[in-house]
Design goal:
The chain is 27% helix and 34% strand. It has 126 residues and is of the alpha+beta class.
Length: 126
């Protein structure tokens, strides 16, 4: 497994958008891999989705182990743990600070995202 401090990995974490994640199915116990966006906010790494239920989110609530698969500027796999972000103030702050979400979220609709969107922070093991 790669480390977030590896030069190519650090650059990808700073600049990339599209990754795959692998979670463990909450009922099947099988690995589930999907493509998704991630967001770097002050060197902390977040994953969200539009408002509504998400299977990947239900999976990490049941088992926080997650593999973060970089695939744009470099290829690397990072082991991590998902921390569900549920505090409304923290969610609002992350949603408004995530530069790559600015075309989707603004002061007029942020509350809809806070109320209905999943949000996790991925914390990497070193």
């Amino acid at each position: 497994m790669a480390s977030p401090s590896d030069p190519g990995v650090a650059d990808a974490l700073a600049n990339d958008l599209v990754i795959d994640i692998t979670t463990i199915g909450r009922t099947s116990g099988e690995p589930k891999r999907i493509e998704i966006w991630f967001h770097n906010v002050d060197d902390r790494y977040y994953i969200t989705g539009r408002p509504g239920p998400r299977s990947w989110y239900a999976n990490v609530l049941a088992n926080p182990a997650i593999t973060f698969h970089l695939k744009q500027s470099t290829e690397a796999d990072l082991d991590g743990a998902a921390r569900a972000v549920t505090d409304p103030a923290e969610k609002r702050s992350v949603f408004l600070a995530a530069k790559k979400l600015s075309e989707y979220i603004n002061e007029d609709n942020v509350q809809q995202w806070v109320d209905g969107s999943p949000l996790i922070e991925v914390v990497f093991g070193e």
